Amino acid sequence: MAADPLRMARRLARAVLLGSAAIVVAAMASGQDAPDPAALRAAYAGVPATWPRPALHPGAAFAEFAALPLRPEPDVRERATIALGARLFDDPILSRSGQIACASCHARELGFADGLRTSFGHDRTRGRRNSQGLLTVGWMSPLFWDGRATTLEEQALHPITDRIEMAADMGEVEQRVNGDRAYREGFAALNGNRRIVRADIAVALAAFQRSLRPPTTRYTRFVRGETRALTDEQLRGLDLFRGKAGCANCHNGALLSDQRFHNLGLSFYGRAREDLGRWEVTGDPADVGTFRTPSLLGIGRTAPYMHNGLLRTLDNVVAFYNGGGGRDRRAASLKGDAPPPRPDPLLKPLNLSAEERAALVAFLETL
């Protein structure tokens, strides 16, 4: 039966005033399986601060959705530093073998990821973690899945010296860079005619990464006020993301990331593929099996997903969360003295219907 328009409008007005996404959905449903598209669009017609409040669990750290801030235009010196960093990023001179560059695991065509479950490094050694896209790293801290670096300058040197990734000695890298005339002249224009050192390399690589930015998408246009940028199904997915699906508990703000660490039950604790996550950095029992919340901007280009690349598609990701995440064993750790991971209280079964899961995927594809 069709809903009474006046009654539905009154319910919607009350729901928006109360500010609950769950109430908004209930008010718009009016006895139907899905919210009325016109009412849903009315609820999200304004800026994000006027949208129905998200349904949050205790302990969530929420920041309202927003567009990424614009960066000022770089000056002449910054442009020169970025150009040097861009060349270094593509240059295998930074690796021990002279065959691997930063771009080997962070390809522009793949959102600066590599499309693999986990990446290959020196001597085709396979790493244990998925290569993250870099389009938002200029706004994020800490960095890496385990948060071991706080700045891009610190982060930039880790892959170069990691024995599994590029396996280089920084002294040898410095010697090679100093032996390249173009690098000598480029850095001399910035720093004078002195020897190029690892800090110069780190600054240039960081400047290049900081210059990256996700492309404009349907989602960014919608957040900026272009209310027709999302289809009805995509808009329903946004409402589910903030409401019933609970995604906004961890994915929020301009980055769609709380930049915190969570245990999703994918650490393989006590099994051969065990990865103890942030605990390996801090030694804090609360950090066993936790990994940093990635930004979702550009997520459609950076499959597969999760720190171990276990989930191949966005449908897989939604199905995983719909079931309440993974399950950790209580057996002893195989690779350390870490206690069993603690379940994350923000992770709960969602009981989404097939139509709701499809709408959620449709929204994620707009990011």
Question: What do you see in this structure?
Answer:
- The chain is built from 13 helices and two strands; from the N terminus they run ααααααααααβαβαα.
- With about 375 residues, the protein is an all-alpha fold.
- The protein has three domains: about 1-35; about 45-65 and about 215-365, Cytochrome Bc1 Complex, Chain D, domain 2 (Orthogonal Bundle); about 75-210, Cytochrome c-like domain (Cytochrome Bc1 Complex, Chain D, domain 2, Orthogonal Bundle).
- A two-stranded antiparallel ribbon has the order 1-2.
- Helix 5 packs across helix 8 (about 200-210) and helix 10 (about 230-240) crosses helix 13.
- The protein is globular.
- The two termini are about 35 Å apart.
Summarize the structure.
The protein is an all-alpha fold. It is built from 13 helices and two strands, in the order ααααααααααβαβαα.
